[in-house]
What does this fold into?
Amino acid sequence: MTQLVKTQAEPRSAKVLYTARTHTSGGRENGTARSSDGHLDIRLSSPGTGGVGTNPEQLFAAGWSACFEGAMGIAARKMRVTIPEDMAIDAEVSLNLDGPDYFLTAALNISLPGLEREVAQALADAAHQTCPYSKAIRNNVDVTINVI
It folds into this structure.
């Protein structure tokens, strides 16, 4: 078994807060995925094929937007700002093809009704710096963050 490990310039001593474990078989064409705790049990299918399952791009969009909303909550507490109850994030994750190369592009459209635009933008900027998903794709995926 090959294990790929990313090395960092400086070692980090981090406390593991949670580890998600899934088992996937069949891939995006006609696969299934389930989590070790049984909370996730889904079918997979490619977009545009008429399949009944979801796909990796939808799963990433849902995970990223949920994580980003949590990061916005942390930023709001630090800034002593109340996030509106009807806050919403619409995420877009696009699978692209350029010649033989597949790659992702992504956007978050963040709605914070009732907040001044400058405050909303500051929250979004702070969240983008701290959200683990945003950090994971930084300098690897073209990302647009829109406060709408």
Strands lie at 22-25, 32-35, 41-43, 88-98, 101-111, 142-147. The chain has a mean pLDDT of 93. The longest helix spans residues 56-79.
